[in-house]
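Internal tracking record. Fields below are filled automatically when a chain is submitted to the structure queue. Please do not edit lines marked as system-generated. If the sequence contains nonstandard residues, flag them in the REMARKS field before resubmitting.
Queue: standard
Priority: normal
Entity type: single polypeptide chain
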Amino acid sequence: MHRPTLIDDDCFAVRQAARRISQFYERYLSHAGITASQYSILALLSDRPGLTMAALSSALVIERSALLRALKPLVSAALVAGHCEDNRRRLSYMLTADGEAKVARAHTYWLAAQDAFERRFGTSEAARLRDELFRVTHQIPER
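SYSTEM-GENERATED OUTPUT FOLLOWS
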């Protein structure tokens, strides 16, 4: 039986690339005082306010417990607020005014990171990579 090496490990390659790209973007986003994960949450809520925990979890492809840990500092910093719906059965999240200001400021740094990444990797290569990664995300079942 052939034992694959790390060079043959798709999961290792994707995780390694994801960490490297996250580190790259975080160098830029740190100037706005947020992480890449926090930016993703804020940007998503800016585009789609009122998402429930389940919808946020699904859109971000993150376990609910990890999402709760990521949301906690954003709620504590009054960037995100929860709103109870359906007689307190459903909690939805939206940005506060401070959250809108934070994501707008951070977006400038995100654009700089995006531009720098595409200059290094290539604009068309980055677009193909994005398309392929989104295809993988949608083709592999959640469970």
